[in-house]
Amino acid sequence: MAADSIEDNKWTLCAGTLSEFLQAALSYEAVFAFPFHGEELMYWLTEEEMETVSSGLERQPFGLHGWLGMEMSFYSNAPDNMAVIMDCGDLEALYGAASETGYRKLMEVMEGLGEAI
C-alpha cells in the first residue's frame, strides 16, 4: 500500500498480493539495470503508440496501481526483455533487455515509438 502523502491517512492498495508487488517492483528496477535499452531513459507515448505496445507485446499479469500516483503496467515479448508503461496522466515508457537478442525482439515493436523525455 502507498499513502498519497506523509500527512495523508488515506492509503491505496497497489497490488493484490505481496508476490504481485514484488514481481512488479523488481521488474521495474531490473529495466534500469538491463545492459540493452533505448538511447534515452524514458519516452512519452501517445495513445496510438500505446495501442501499438499493447497489441505487439504481452501484458504481464502483475502491475502497480496508485504507486507514486501512477498506474504501472509491464509488457514483454521475450523472457529477458521488459517495457514498463507508467500512466500518470501522460504515458511514460522505459524499456530494455538483458540480451541483444531480447532487445532486438523488443525493438520489433518499440522501434520509433515515443518522444524522449
Can I get a quick summary?
Helix content is 32%, strand content 36%. The protein is an alpha+beta fold and 117 residues long. It has a single domain (31-116), classed as 2-Layer Sandwich (TATA-Binding Protein).
Verbal overview:
- It is a single chain.
- By secondary structure, the chain is of the alpha+beta class.
- The protein has one domain: TATA-Binding Protein.
- Helices cover 32% and strands 36% of the residues.
- The chain has 3 helices and 9 strands, in the order ββαββαββββαβ.
- It has helices at residues 18-33, 47-56, 100-110, and strands spanning 2-3, 11-12, 36-37, 43-45, 58-67, 70-76, 81-87, 91-97, 115-116.
- The strands form 2 sheets. Strands 3, 4, 5, 6, 7, 8 and 9 form a 7-stranded antiparallel β-sheet that branches. The protein has a two-stranded antiparallel sheet with strand order 1-2.
- It is globular.
- It starts with a strand and ends with a strand.
- The model has no long low-confidence stretch (mean pLDDT 91).
Please supply descriptive tags for the structure shown above.
seven-stranded antiparallel sheet; alpha+beta; single chain; TATA-Binding Protein; two-stranded antiparallel sheet; 117 residues
Name the shape in a single word.
Answer: globular
CATH topology: TATA-Binding Protein
> If you average the pLDDT, what whole number results?
91
Counting DSSP H or I runs of 4 or more residues, the number of helices is: 3
Describe the sheet with the most strands: 7 strands, antiparallel
Uncertain segments of ≥5 residues (pLDDT<50)? none
Radius of gyration: 14 Å
Q: Which class do the helix and strand fractions yield?
A: alpha+beta
Tell me the CATH architecture: 2-Layer Sandwich
Q: What would CATH call the class?
A: Alpha Beta
- One letter per element, helices H and strands E, the order comes to EEHEEHEEEEHE
